[in-house]
Design brief:
single chain; 716 residues; alpha+beta; elongated
Length: 716
Amino acid sequence: MNEIRLGGCTPTPLANYLKALGILRLVAEQKDEQAMGHWEGECFVLSTSLNRDELVRFFLDEYQPTPIIAPWNGGSGFYPNDNKDGISAVQSSPSPRFEPYRNTISLAQQTLNRMSLEESPKDKGQKAVLLTTLRAQLPDDALAWMDAAILLGGDDPKYPPLLGTGGNDGRLDFTNNFMQRLGELFDGKGKTATQGPEAWLLGALSGNSTPFLASKAIGQFSPGGVGGPNASTGYEGGSLVNPWDFILMIEGALPFAAAATRRMEAAGNLAALSYPFTVRATGSGSGSAALSDEGNARAEMWLPLWHAPATYGEIRALMSEGRVTLGRQPVHDGLEFARAIAALGVNRGIDTFQRFGFLMRSGKAYLATPLNRFEVRKNRQAALLSDLDKQQGWLNRLRRVARQDEMPARLKSLVRQLEDAIFALSQGAKDARQPLQQIIALLGEIQMLCHQSPKVREALRTPVPRLGAQWVIEANDGSSEFRLASALAGLYGGKGKSQLNMKRFITPVTAEGYAWDNESRNVVWVGGGLTRNLIAVLGRMLQQADALGLRDKPLFSARYCHLDDVAAFLNRRVDDAKIARLIPGLALVEIPQDPGGHRNKEAQIHLAYTLLKPLFTPDAALQKMGFLHGDQRLAIPSGLLRRLSNPATFVSGMELARRRLRAFGLKTPPKINSASGVDVERLTAALLIPVNYQELKKLCTTIGMKPAEQESETNH
């Protein structure tokens, strides 16, 4: 077979993509049944027994146009006031290549005459009767076009966005223009016209510039070719069209017909939503679209690109199914499509999808706008998003709520950012940890907004679903900020991990986090910075532990930090804003057990922290390290936290801590007589940070703490 690279057939614009399908279809159906095609780089490669010259001669001398008509549309050439140039040229041609076309036009005209239609039907019922009658009477070679342009399911016909509203785009009727372009290419005998067609064909195949193009409209298929402001030199540019581009583009829309026909029969009134690779438009995930585009957009299409040669029969079968699923459910919009690709919801040999949005541009005109391209590959990080589908499809509910006019602008902004991050994750970001962290942080912000806005909370009904431990594993970038945030987010105390946990001090949720707790008075996480929030949480945790009669401090965590992380925090060598954004989101995650291990790296820790940290360590942890007997407690002195966080009382707070440790039998370091050089607010906040037990044990020994049994022997 010969491999012919078609430089004029590229994934974008949509006109060039359809042109590739049109060439493959026509060659396979009319000349070489074994012809195959695939995408290589940015062009289509046709594999055929024809060489390039024979391919050109086929289209010029043998190509038989598909009977493409739309007598249901005004401007289609069938009515008295329509432009008759195209339809007259086809009807008057004696060439055998136009015989099927002539017969189809004649049958359609007879139907219109029987129904006494002098203009296109405006009444829905009359139009439905016309469409049904034509569907029953037109020959098979004309039905493929009709089925690609219209879905006859339910009471009203549906119009897939690929072909506008039944084969027209506003006043531009594709079928009449198709026939006019044929008239420009062929003389009355069906042969090539004396000037232009061969050069135009070579340009259409190669993508090279072609002179003397027709000043005609191309419609929505090629946004760069529609003309308008700044489209050429001067202030305005006209629409110039290569007739072969238009003809092959329309021929390339027919492979979508089989799917429309078969799925129409099962889909009923929802038939339009079953068009191959077509979903509702999503305004996020691309700089070319916005949420405001969704209301006016017709839809979006995700068109497949494949790198392995495939026959037209295989491509037609792919298009006829045209189905992508997320889990067991068909996808409904662009975001779900992106997720389905990432989760391998498509498994048909497709390597990539080119995403197009049929968006309103240039006034009220729709243009098939190229958005972005997605690779089909395994993406374990994107599979984590299934957690957000829990609780009766929470993510979809959030997205619907955010699009309601009465919702706060802040929610709309957060959801747009969330969708963009999900697109980035689904697209296979080079470093998936960044979009994952962004998603985690945004979920935390949305959860907090629900607390602040009763309207949002009522509309969403439930909090963010509990996220699995794998989120932490996959999002971990190895930074001190992430270790600090995940350890703090995993704080808990009391019975199990639910009685007192970090998320309950950030938003009012029940212990398990599956519902809102409208009676909660524990929320202390507000504006004012990271350190103040950490101090507020520490104070409320200790207060609640006393109120509940807990014997131990509620300062456990499944994950722990290293002392050099604490030192970085104390010395302001971490990004507070990043930690503050991550904590509320990570509090929604099931924090996995720390893998353990400590660092040999020596951390320069302030003496005040070294003295205080044992007091703010759970007694169970001190027992595990051997510093306490089973019935011993190292209680925090009353009022200590309040004194430490205030520079004016910091010294007295340190003395109170020293006395408690001395009462425990420790030889404490000298007094700290001044708060000079100490960021007391930051030091106090650092006492909440869970520290690796092995490193904490080493820290405790520096202030004279000894194993409990060793201390017992000394006392005797």
